[in-house]
Amino acid sequence: MKDIFQSVIDDIHDKLDDKVGLDVYGCDLHHELCNADYFIIGRYQAKQCLGEHVFDAIEMVKDYEQSNFGEVSTDLSEPERVVNMLAYIIGEHVLAESGHLQDKWDVCLTGDDLTKIAEDLECLSAFKLYEKAA
User: Fold this and answer.
1) What is the number of other CB atoms lying within 10 angstroms of the CB of residue 48?
2) pLDDT tens across 69-128, in order?
3) How far is the C-alpha of 55 from the C-alpha of 30, rounded, in Å?
4) DSSP class per residue in 75-118
5) Helix, strand or coil for residue 68?
6) How many distinct structural domains can be found in the chain?
7) Residue from 16, 20, 47 nearest 32 by CA
8) What is the C-alpha separation between 122 and 120, in angstroms, rounded?
9) Whose CA is closest to 10, among 44, 49, 63?
10) Which H or E run contains 3?
């Protein structure tokens, strides 16, 4: 599962480098990075990504949705939906590690802000993040 966490971290870094989230409020950055575009497109690619972690991913999605919404709305029989919801959840954990983002929650983000957020996440360990989220 740590490899999936690392893939999401890398995806967020790439998007921040591409200035995704520029001129949006800090509170909306998670949406821009993890919900406005798909992490994985295609059933085959999703199955490849989930691999042996498919049941851990389903459990994480199920627990998150039950805890936050009181019900599970993701179609757990569709690998693409599971992996994209998993990336959404992991993205929440990743961005929570940025102190700079927490300080910019109610303001529009500049290019410098995105760079500082990326720097906050630079030394983020997929292993530590996974242990914290599990």
Assistant:
1) 12
2) 999 999 999 999 999 999 999 999 999 999 999 999 999 999 999 999 999 988 777 767
3) 25
4) -TT-HHHHHHHHHHHHHHHHHTT-HHHHHTTTSB--HHHHHHHH
5) helix
6) 1
7) 20
8) 6
9) 49
10) helix 2-17
Nearest to 62, CA basis, from 52, 51, 78, 73: 73
Record the tokens describing residue 63, joined without a space.
């627990």
Domain that holds residue 83: 2-133
Measured N-to-C along each axis, helices 43-50 and 54-69 cross at an angle, to the nearest 10 degrees, of: 100
| Per-residue pLDDT at 4 | 94
For tokens 């019900």, the residue is 71
Output the six-digit token pair for 31: 């949406």
- Cβ-contact 64, 89 below 8 angstroms: yes
Structure-token pair, residue 7:
């893939």
Look up the pTM and report it. 0.91
Structure tokens at 124: 């983020």
The SS3 call for residue 25 is strand
**53 DSSP 8-state letter:** G
From residue 55, give the alpha-carbon distance in Å to each of 7, 28, 61, 90.
Answer: 18, 30, 10, 16
